[in-house]
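Technical note accompanying the year-one report. For the benefit of new consortium partners, we illustrate the data format agreed upon in the data management plan: each record pairs a sequence with a structure-token string. No post-processing was applied to the example shown here.
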Amino acid sequence: MRRFALAATAAAMLAQPAAPAFAQQRGPASVADLAEGLLEAVVNISTSQNRGAGGSDAVPMPRLPEGSPFQDFFEEFFRDRGGNNQPRRVQSLGSGFVIDAEQGIIITNNHVIADADEIEANFSDGSKLKAELVGRDTKTDIAVLKVDPTLKQLKAVQFGDSNAIRIGDWVMAIGNPFGLGGTVTVGIVSARNRDINSGPYDDFIQTDAAINRGNSGGPLFDMDGNVIGINTAIISPSGGSIGIGFSIPSELAVNVITQLREFGETRRGWLGVRIQPVTDDIAESLGMARAEGALVAGVTKGGPVDNGVLEPGDVILRFDGRPVREMRDLPRIVADSPVGKEVDVVIVRRGEEQVVKVTLGRLEDGEEMAEGGAGEGEEGGAVATASVLGMTIGELDDAARAQFGILPEVSGVVISEVTPGSAAADKGIAAGEVITEIAQESVSSPQQVIDRIAALREQGRRNALLMLSSKTGELRFVTLRMD
């Protein structure tokens, strides 16, 4: 009997599925204690805007015949509604959180306080304080506010490390959805590094913790009570949460907030290049083992690297020790770097990896500067026009410049016609563009284009890498199949 019992037990154990290699953990039993300790630091942001008469959404009083029996009625109605050229006040609501109790510093979204004439912070105990704007950044949608800390004892929260957060980790959002007041929601990190095309530095944390209208500017906490994100945007056909919300990661926010507090504005690093993605075709044309990095498509005239240290056709792989895995990584890394800093940049140039040193300028000083400018090519050529790779090309003479409006500083070989359905047409090449380089060598005549393509074919290349210039000098790279 004993032997049978043991055998039966052993058989039952064998019949059970093997335990997974990782421990199964349920969600937190409760976040009540955590939320209780954080609610005081989260505020509701109330703003008001004075709008003068005649706004686009104002309804004018109808014109009535003199002496009409309805005249008194309509005059009273529109006077009460703020019509009849009376100024009106428009209010909006959002969220924010205190990060410095001694200085009275509050963080929120820029779009929460944009165009506001008055800003007020409403605390969980019902008290209210007037807030003033310290600084704002439209590119990351962050604003820094300040209240008088002598009027109320404040409680602050601190930023955590958003890089340490993992997909599937529990997070908690506190905010002011639909103007209801302090509301706590819990969910997980659904994804990281989301690009929702809202700005040049998109790198959002995606969460399914309920975020609704009015949550904007509120904090996203980890389970240690640290702020790892600023709730900013949602995807919602209905206007309510469908479990897709986005938060600015603390890694990106902290540097912006520090600059806004110190200077009242951002001071981002600036490299002064135009970039485009490295596709598989481009990587093959450049002899790279895989598609990675950011391809320099143009250099800003008068910018930090307008001294030849970087050239169109360079592929940036690392910047100041940080990897550039894809094109959109580079703007964020450069922007986070101090103005005036000399950094090492790892590039691939003409198939060889090398390190160059660049000194960063300030982005805000160079945003209005014109980009581009192609290198000068050699004069001469054996043919005036030619047909190659689905394009009709010709000399860039005065007649061609006048025909297509090409600026004097642009040099190369003009494309006068593109064959419909050709590989060139499929890549969006258009008449009036100028071929400035092929396989990173300058061309200035149709004959040089023919010779360069013939040489590439002799080398066994299947793609030709073309650098094209617009009529105003903006550069881009395109690869064309030669078979």
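Partners are asked to follow this layout when depositing records. The mean pLDDT is 83.
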